Automatic annotation (TrEMBL):
<comment type="similarity">
    <text>Belongs to the ABC transporter superfamily.</text>
</comment>
<dbReference type="InterPro" id="IPR027417">
    <property type="entry name" value="P-loop_NTPase"/>
</dbReference>
<dbReference type="GO" id="GO:0015833">
    <property type="term" value="P:peptide transport"/>
</dbReference>
<keyword id="KW-0472">Membrane</keyword>
<dbReference type="InterPro" id="IPR050388">
    <property type="entry name" value="ABC_Ni/Peptide_Import"/>
</dbReference>
<dbReference type="Pfam" id="PF00005">
    <property type="entry name" value="ABC_tran"/>
</dbReference>
<keyword id="KW-0067">ATP-binding</keyword>
<dbReference type="InterPro" id="IPR003439">
    <property type="entry name" value="ABC_transporter-like_ATP-bd"/>
</dbReference>
<keyword id="KW-0813">Transport</keyword>
<dbReference type="Pfam" id="PF08352">
    <property type="entry name" value="oligo_HPY"/>
</dbReference>
<keyword id="KW-1003">Cell membrane</keyword>
<dbReference type="InterPro" id="IPR013563">
    <property type="entry name" value="Oligopep_ABC_C"/>
</dbReference>
<dbReference type="GO" id="GO:0005524">
    <property type="term" value="F:ATP binding"/>
</dbReference>
<dbReference type="InterPro" id="IPR003593">
    <property type="entry name" value="AAA+_ATPase"/>
</dbReference>
<keyword id="KW-0547">Nucleotide-binding</keyword>
<protein>
    <submittedName>
        <fullName>Oligopeptide/dipeptide ABC transporter, ATPase subunit</fullName>
    </submittedName>
</protein>
<dbReference type="GO" id="GO:0005886">
    <property type="term" value="C:plasma membrane"/>
</dbReference>
Length: 341
């Protein structure tokens, strides 16, 4: 298989705000997000439905569709520049060739009227690939790595493949052009546990072999614990905690992260320790304009949470946005934005 030898790029998301037009005006689905993906790492993003995870992922491709739009901020990727500022043919070529994306529902990204092989050739032609035979050869090899008969899959239509097979086809299409940044949106949703484990193992192996920078969006804390190097926790369109996955899950600092971990079902030990989060996550129409977005469900709520957005500060080796973690009037170490050349 032909592989590129360029180093994994760093990704720097700065002050990103994405809004959606509603009858009540433009409302933020993602607000003021700062997040760095270190070169060569896998970063997981977790949170409940509606937390802004998928909108954040689409922003890495500048692919937020109306009635949504990126209102402000930047997504800088080494070797590409600010994706938010790209447009036209350059943006189209960047998607797929430089940034691979695996959609949450793989069947929705496949054309039901064409075989997988024809869609592969269309992808190659649209990105100016001259060696189409080599592209097919690489695709078959990738599919074989994922436990499938490449020739049979390429001759199949999407309805002839199982959900797990379609998910692996999506991963193949995201990788076959040798993209160095890969975004996977809920890659194990609705799959059985054995298929989930296989897909996670494949993602990790290919990530390491190809030297990728990978972002995985998921609601499954257990899955991200197995594969990710870093973990970002989102709530109400904000990143409330971010750091090494072992530290975030081993000693969560933000009340929301703690509540997420408490809500995980248990198979052994004291089963009563698993407790659901009280209340419901906010919607676009119920997100507070000021103050902490988690305050309505937080058992550590303070008066300042009503009026002031908590700043991201360094606490215990990771960034946390919570007034209760760092007292609002005590000196706090500001969150450092580590830059990568």
């Amino acid at each position: 298989m032909t592989l590129t030898t360029t180093a994994a790029p760093g990704v720097r998301i700065r002050d990103l705000t994405v809004v959606y037009r509603t009858p009540h005006g433009e409302l933020p689905a993602v607000r003021g997000v700062d997040l760095t993906l270190a070169p060569g790492t896998i970063t997981g993003v977790v949170g409940e439905s509606g937390s802004g995870k998928s909108t954040l992922a689409l922003s890495l491709l500048n692919a937020v569709q109306p009635p949504g739009r990126i209102a402000s901020g930047s997504v800088e990727i080494d070797g590409i520049g600010d994706v938010v500022r790209l447009g036209g043919e350059r943006l189209r070529q960047t998607r797929g060739r430089r940034i691979g994306y695996v959609f949450q529902a793989a069947q929705n990204s496949l054309n039901p009227l064409k075989t997988i092989g024809k869609q592969l050739l269309d992808l190659g032609r649209s990105h100016g690939v001259e060696d189409l035979r080599g592209l097919v050869r690489d695709a078959k090899e990738l599919l074989a790595r994922m436990g499938m008969d490449g020739a049979r899959v390429l001759d199949s239509y999407q309805h002839e493949l199982s959900g797990g097979m379609r998910q692996r086809v999506g991963i193949m299409l995201a990788l076959v052009l040798n993209a160095k940044v890969v975004v996977l949106d809920e890659p194990t949703t609705a799959l059985d546990m054995i298929t989930q484990a296989m897909i996670l193992r494949i993602v990790r192996e290919i990530h390491e072999e190809r030297g990728l920078t990978t972002l995985i969006i998921t609601h499954d804390v257990g899955a991200v614990a197995e594969i990710a190097d870093d973990l970002a926790v989102m709530y109400g369109g904000r990143v409330v905690e971010h750091g090494p996955v072992e530290e975030v899950l081993g000693s969560p600092a933000h009340p929301y992260t703690q509540a997420l971990i408490r809500a995980i079902p248990r198979l052994s030990g004291d089963l009563s320790l698993a407790r659901p989060l009280p209340g419901r996550p906010p919607t676009l129409g119920t997100l507070p304009v000021t103050g902490c977005v988690f305050r309505e469900r937080c058992d550590r709520r303070m008066p300042i949470c009503e009026t002031d957005d908590p700043a991201q500060v360094v606490a215990g080796g990771r960034t946390v946005a919570c007034h209760a973690v760092v007292p609002p009037h005590a000196p706090a170490e500001p969150a450092m934005r580590k830059e990568y050349a």
